Amino acid sequence: MILDPEFQRRYVWDNKKAVIDGQQRLRSFFRFLNNEFKLRGLSVLSELNGKYFKDLDKEKQRKIEDTTLSEMPSPHKK
Questions:
Q1: Which of 10, 12, 51, 63 is the most buried (most CB within 10 A)?
Q2: Which alpha helices (DSSP H) does 1-78 contain, by range?
Q3: Under 8 Å CB-to-CB from 34, ≥6 apart: which residues?
């Protein structure tokens, strides 16, 4: 997944997808998976506050890792 797309003239479609909106959310998601920060401020599942991804039980880790991220194609084409 390309988080910093480089659009240019005569763009050749190669089946790669570029993130136009949601980059910060995706970066945060991947940073959490890499244990770069602890969860905080959760009102739902508040028992997970203060935990890194590695601190979660294996079932929760698997559920997060198996989550499908959805996409919506942009109607704008170059």
A1: 51
A2: 23-33, 58-65
A3: 53
The residue extents of the domains of the chain are 1-70
Could you give the CA distance from residue 29 to residue 64 in angstroms, rounded to a whole number? Answer: 10
| CA pair distance 78, 71, nearest whole angstrom | 19
Encoded tokens for 57: 């039980």
Residue 56 near residue 2 (C-beta atoms within 8 A): no
Spatial contact of 5 and 20, defined as CB atoms under 8 Å apart: yes
DSSP state of 11: P
Closest CA to 19 of 7, 31, 37: 7
17 token code pair: 């997808």
Is 0.85 surpassed by the pTM of this model?
no
